[in-house]
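Need residues for this backbone.
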């Protein structure tokens, strides 16, 4: 709204039904109580409908791809890496590389 960007149509579903099912299963495995009945799914769709058109408009304005809600490939975001470390794999692998001589 601040940038006066009209909401844009969502071109791709950022959280498919299959991916949402996987997410719910993963959350349950970690002890999180998750509702995935028809009422909860309808509310999730309603809430996503409130912000995703604005996220799509901002993405288009800034020429950025709006990422999936839960990406399939686990890798760190740019803010989770540093110029003093080798590019990390998944978030769990963000420790210092012992072969890195940057701090010697």
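Answer:
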């Amino acid at each position: 709204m601040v940038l006066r960007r009209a909401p844009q149509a969502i071109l791709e579903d950022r959280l498919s039904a299959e991916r949402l099912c996987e997410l719910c299963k993963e959350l349950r495995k970690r002890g999180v109580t998750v509702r995935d009945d028809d009422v909860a799914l309808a509310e999730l769709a309603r809430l996503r409908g409130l912000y995703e058109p604005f996220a799509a408009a901002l993405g288009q304005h800034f020429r950025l791809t709006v990422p999936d809600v839960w990406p399939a490939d686990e890798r760190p975001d740019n803010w989770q890496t540093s110029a003093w470390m080798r590019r990390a794999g998944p978030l769990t692998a963000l420790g210092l590389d012992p072969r890195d001589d940057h701090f010697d």
